[in-house]
Amino acid sequence: MAKHIPRIGLGTFRLKGQDVIDSIGSALELGYRHIDTAQMYGNETEVGQAIRESGIPRKDIFLTTKVWWDRLKGDDLIRSLEESLERLGVEQLDLALIHWPSPNDEVPMREYIGALNEAREKGLTRHIGVSNFTIAQIDEALSVPGGEHIITNQIEVHPYLANRTLVAHCQAKGMQVTGYMPLAVGKVMQEPILQEIADAHGVNPAQVALAWVAARDIVVIPSSTKRSHQQSNLAALDLELSRDEIARIDDLDSGERIANPDFAPKWDE
Questions:
Q1: Which CATH number does the domain 10-181 belong to among 3.30.460.10, 2.60.120.460, 3.10.450.50, 3.20.20.100?
Q2: Which residue among 41, 112, 160, 180 is the active-site one?
Q3: For a Cys-Cys bond, which of 214, 224, 239, 269 suits 229, CB 3.0-4.6 Å?
């Protein structure tokens, strides 16, 4: 499958109001061209405003939003994306994701993957994908009508949660993996091993963590409001780690999951 998604994007989770506008403004100035939001973040209006104010042509920006699990019923899913487009002030998304699989399969996957693909056929989005899907759920999603158009599974990936079996499974199916929380919500900055590797390269631990995720052919979407952090995150894509350094980071994997709400699916080991 062709690589449709830029290798690094700006995550906007927890960013509201002027914070998200400023964050996107500086990221786009620095060269980011991939912005990730969601209905649940409550910031789509500001995300759209920031994109317009940047002066960068809409066609040059890869824009993702996600449908929350309470809007998964067929017609409602389509309506929710129309509302997202209205809030964002754009005619089309680049990528629409199912944010979480329907809790306890309350809405059958066939119904909501079908509706998501219908949104693609209607031109509401160029591409479709999923987020927080397990191996079994990926297999089911790919098997239902419309599922053949899924291009990504967006999942939590950082040095403390390598998520190896799921990543390998998605990649074997020709699917791009997008890794959220690649900096483990800042925890990587306190990691002695990452600091040691960072010192050897004259970089910071966040850059090492991002380079490690990116080396696994995973799209990274770190969140940052500081221009200097955004700049160093962008530069992390140019950092090449040795095999030995990668192995040392691999050893940090402890299965530590940060995003684990009560409606989450039963995770793969």
A1: 3.20.20.100
A2: 41
A3: 224
